[in-house]
Amino acid sequence: MCDWQHRWYVESQQQVYHGRVGNVFTTAQIAESGVEFKGGQKKHFVPMMRPVQFKPCDQTIDPYTLGVLLGDGCLTGNTYRMNLSAAEREQMEVMI
Questions:
Q1: Which among 23, 66, 65 has a CA at the least distance from the CA of 47?
Q2: Looking at residue 93, what is its pLDDT?
Q3: Coil, helix or strand for 18?
Q4: Using one digit for the tens of pLDDT, what is the confidence trace for 50-87?
Q5: Mean pLDDT of 11-15
Q6: Diameter of the chain by CA atoms?
Q7: DSSP 8-state symbol, 11
Q8: Roughly how many angstroms between the first and final C-alpha of the chain, as a whole number?
Q9: Which pLDDT band, with edges at 50, 70 and 90, does 25 fall under?
Q10: Where are the beta strands (DSSP E) in the chain?
Q11: Contact of 73 with 80, CB cutoff 8 Å
Q12: What is the signed CA dihedral for 35, 6, 73, 55, rounded to 10 degrees?
């Protein structure tokens, strides 16, 4: 979800073809200029990003647990809360 002032880094097919850098436009600017040319070709696209490659390290929290916490939980100060379905609760109990 974004508002009219959200800034997007976008590229056009022409910029990619010529190896040029894209532009940053607000949602309002993109809407005002239209998203397609008359022939139906898209004016802009948000480029796909490559995955981040981190150096291997010891994990202090199990990756599944972290995913559940991020997806269904909340961290506040020194406390946490998770809203788990019965299946997720069962999976967490197996892991503990």
A1: 23
A2: 76
A3: coil
A4: 899 989 888 788 787 788 778 877 777 777 777 777 87
A5: 91
A6: 58
A7: B
A8: 35
A9: very high
A10: 7-10, 23-26, 73-76, 79-82
A11: yes
A12: 90
